[in-house]
Request: fold
Amino acid sequence: MEQPRVGTDIQFAICGSAGDGTIAAGDIMKRAAALMGFKVIAFDIYPPEIRGFGKCISRIRISDAQTYSLKRHSDVLISLNDAHAIPHVGEVRDFGAVLFEDNSIAELPEGGHISAHIRAAQVPYGFGIREISEKATGLARSRNIAALGYAAGLFNMPPGIFHQIIAEKFAKKPRAVTEDNTRAFDAGVEAAARVFKLDDVSVGRPLSAASGADAVMMTGNGAIARGFLEAGIQAYFGYPITPASSIMERMAAALPREGGRFLQTEDEISAIAATLGAGYAGARAATATSGPGLALMTEMMGLGVMAEVPFVVAVSQRGGPSTGLPTKTEQSDLNLAVYGGSGDAQRIVLAPTNVEGCYRCAGMAFEIAETYQTPVVLLVDLYLSNRFETVIPPRKNIFAPKPRKTPKMGKGEEYQRFRLTESGVSPRSIPGEAGLTHTVTGLEHDEIGHPSDRLHNEMNAKRHHKLLPATHFPGLTTQKRFGDSGKVDVGLLGWGSTFGEILETLYTAQGQDIRVAVMKVVMLSPLPVDEIAAFMDDCTHVLVPELNFEGQFANMISGATGRPVTRLTQTTGAPMLVDDILAELHRLIDSPAPPPTSSHRTAEGVRA
Amino acid sequence: MASPLHHVIIGSGSAGFGAAVTLRKGDPDCRISMMTMDSLPFYNRYDLPQIFQGRSDWRDMLAVPPTFFDENRITLRRHNRVVEVDGVARRIRLAHQETVGFDTLLVCSGGRAYVPENLTDKLPLMHGMGSYEAVMRLYRDLPQGGHAIFIGGDMIGIDLMLMLVKTGYSVTLITTPQTLWPHEVSDEKRGKILAALADKGVTVVDSARPVGIDAGSDQGAARVVTLEDGTEINGDVVVPACGLVASVEFMLRAGVDIERGLLVNPELGTSNEAIWAAGDVCQIWNDEDKVYQFCHGWKNVRIMGELAAGNMQGTHRDFDVRVEDRIDLDEAGNIVSTFWEH
Reply:
């Protein structure tokens, strides 16, 4: 059984049907917890179809110490719809709490009530959620808030903070909405006050020195949008696609206010073409998409590489291929992001591992793109895009653009836009700058940009070599090692959202006296090969957990270093579980030598 | 292959739990569902007074680990209030609008605390002692060294009274006709037992009738009990201890015979062949005396549950209604009762 940590480390799961206010209740809970000063990680799951009335779950982990992933077991489950919540009762840990409606107005078949599924070790709290809402507001609509109030009361969370968040959440609606929901919340608190608490879940005072007022709750996509804005983005072109759409929505609302340009294009090809055009014209420009959109964008990515145009493409991965699983998470667009397109089209690919990383990478992406005159892909996935975490942004904008240097030409000197330099970076001008006329084309070209095959080899080398210093870009964490120093039994290499689970695995394994270290790799192209190889030198076994079938990152690592790794891959549409990584880690420790085999987890289980 | 039988047990106390274990032993394939209004899995209620000795974690009181229910495939449904039993259609209806079918039904719903009729409107001012939560509330509301007033003095209450005086609280017992329930003793023995209680530190107010209970002032006592003669007794909590009345309201439309409890034959079967009863809820036919009688006490209740379950599965054993009913003082002056045996 997953033991609760000392101090506060609680995971709430709120489950209901679309329309029950499940996500709204979760939103209030996580924002209230953040305002209390807790660290928060939250992740919402929507129905498997993009539209519909299926199951919604909001999971919120609040803690007084930094955590890196959701827990396998929730401490509290709040059911707003038993039919949907029943399959999730099992995720509540022993002596955790299950809150549910015990005064249904509809006839239920045998087993249709959640009480039939609560294990003896779990603590049931049945109460009249609907009745509380109706008594407080005259309507059942505030059931979600009444249940939230009950939970807040049961776990002794300060109502005043919830009042504040409720007021903020419904600020744009008629005042009666805030008043009704506040009354429903208070009625829930009052109902809980009459209940004898039997679970062992407790919310203590946050120990973090971080002030709740400074903390900001952000999703990965929200952090990307904020990073873009603080970096002075001037143009955004996009076409909606799950799970990247919320980046576009935020840009649509914010960018015009900031004096920038926003356009929803007719498709992804237009979006990236416009982005590239804006980048060529000297604007900080970006688009965002998911795997299917990126597939359409690859031709323009190649043009960006060939024409050495800086722009940024945020890619939030979902289950694939093709339309795939729009609302499920996966890390299977790595190959496409790094290699997608014709020819040798190396570009920079950054994969943040948490929400703060999304903010920082997005904030620095334009600077990197401009420094190396190339497209930058910001690669996240649905789990990170939609995951909420508390972030304490710097008080001062650290991403503000620096003035671009216009190339200075000597008298009679010919401007060579693609001059072969030692660094590979050529003097960049933008259209309209006097004396810097040049040609740009998707055809291979010479140093002034005229189509020519004469320097193809040199230009290929230039386009590759100029990117290599990016692995040490100032202020950017391109890789980082955690855990034991020196030789270790097992080293875990991770990227993207899965790194949170890897880090939790590290701390669990260290508690079991296992010598283990982990390395997160943020820059996936170009790879920080030397650092990765040095890390692997210290590891008896190297394990690479990731959410795709083939082990795309493992293949990349193995190819770059020529060393064997063990793959742990999974395509269940859900984040990888710490327990699964830990089990594989234990299996490796018991293995005498680095095994050449891989493990792959499917819905049916693990196969070697 | 025939579907496995579904045995539904109403109640999760000693009788219900004993029945569930017996049913599982007798039929590895059957379905067993226990419906209870409780929040906790089965625990030993006779351990509840130990809360006043600091044993307050409910997990320490569980008779078996919670996993026992999973391992034995016993579906324990808590917060489930049965509102109606249809003995013909063989289904029960729960307060939350769920209907559950059964092949056999065992009613072990026990009893609720009896409160004298003239005090029923004062229930909100009293503390129960029938469940872990109730005793914990009592524990929390009774200040250290505080004063508890017991009305009645049944054997459950006396057990708690003795613990309270032993752990530094003061106790007043206002006796009623239910004193020493369910034992029926001579006046002489009753006097000796009350004297023994007084000797242990209990203040006994004999032959008095409480007529009122009021919340005290913020500065003074939390509770004031007024007796028929106008005497007022100040205390911190008031506990009714007047015995139990069978909880049978939900059985009124079940088509079984009911008097004060469910009437059962010596095999603990009711007048409906699919419905059985055990524990404090049933009155058992005493063929010798030609009466239906209750058989209380923790040990009797457990035996009844086990026996009823066996009979539900085809054995034909009678419950011996000639159970020992004895209350005495031992050589050290301690009260000993067959009610407390377990």
Observations:
- Confidence is low (pLDDT under 50) at residues 1-5, 600-608 of chain A.
- The longest helix of chain A spans residues 175-193.
